[in-house]
Write a structure and sequence with these properties.
single chain, alpha/beta, 12 strands
Length: 297
């Protein structure tokens, strides 16, 4: 639940104070009335599409917020399409490994070698049957070349926002050309209402990261939208406090704002039609969108 606009931060632990955005840069402060929001349940559009190191895994999971239940929806879709499954921007296997545990052959694609290593290690720890169903492929989505064929391809966790608009049509054509007859591409993203972006192009959030390893982690996130380029940058100022010390880390992610009409045209041009669209309202300015697209047979 949002607190009233313009709230100060006495409720935030003192350890967080040194990582407030104003201490790191001289960007102008949020517009009057925008303030800092203390958010405890959903984090509108704050998901990161940058590689996560082991210390940031908890934060990345928390940032998925509106997409956190996507594994259920994607698994349900996989049961209707069958495998093999292509997981684009897989990270450390948030979806790929559970899919393999449910018996699906999965090809996991990510640009981050360390994330793919963690994925493979996780699969091996579960057992040889799961590890045998997962194949990893290191590649950047802007230069993807596939060799297999798939019943389901996924751009989950808002990964479509990591692909520059100039490269997106080529990626969609490449994926569509490797889908089997009746196959599907499923993707999700956070949709921002244009009036809200114009009225408030800079937003600041403070929240606690749910952790179960004895570390207390608080984050202030500065979200800055650039409408001329249809892009955004999020900077996360993080304080992680253990029994003996506090670690302060600054992380950033750069994303592209999705224009739904342009995306629909690109999908159509790639030979895909939107079969289903699921919207989930996050707040009065944003919603989570899940698209299921089928090949034009």
């Amino acid at each position: 639940m949002h607190t009233p606009s313009g709230i100060s931060l006495p409720v935030v632990p003192a350890a967080l104070a040194p990582v407030l955005p104003s201490r790191y840069d001289r960007e102008r402060e949020p517009a009057p009335g925008a303030g800092i929001r203390i958010e405890s349940d959903t984090l509108p559009g704050l998901e990161s599409v940058s590689p996560a190191d082991e210390g940031s895994v908890w934060l990345h999971d928390a940032l998925l917020g509106p997409h956190s239940a996507d594994i259920v929806r994607y698994l349900s879709l996989a049961r209707s399409t069958g495998g093999p499954v292509l997981d684009l921007g897989s990270g450390a296997g948030r979806l790929a490994v559970p899919f393999a545990r449910h018996g699906f052959a999965v090809e996991a694609v990510d640009r981050d070698a360390s994330a793919l290593e963690r994925l493979e290690g996780w699969a091996r720890r579960i057992g040889p049957q799961v590890a045998g169903l997962v194949v990893t492929h290191r590649a950047d989505l802007t230069d993807l070349r596939l060799e297999g064929s798939y019943r389901l391809a996924m751009l989950a966790g808002a990964m479509v926002t990591a692909v520059p608009p100039a490269h997106r049509p080529e990626l969609l054509r490449e994926v569509a050309s490797h889908l089997e007859t009746g196959g599907a591409l499923a993707l999700d993203y956070t949709a921002h209402q244009l009036p809200g972006l114009i009225a408030e192009p800079r937003r600041t959030w403070a929240f606690q990261v749910p952790r179960f390893d004895g570390i207390d982690e608080w984050v202030v996130a500065r979200q800055v939208f650039d409408l001329p380029s249809m892009s955004e940058r999020i900077t996360y100022y993080t304080a992680r406090t253990g029994k003996l010390s506090t670690e302060r880390v600054v992380l950033t992610t750069d994303k592209w704002i999705v224009d739904p009409e342009r995306l629909a045209a690109e999908l159509h041009s790639a030979g895909l039609h939107i079969e289903g669209r699921r919207r989930h309202r996050i707040d009065d300015r944003t919603e989570s969108v899940l698209l299921v697209c089928r090949t034009d047979d």
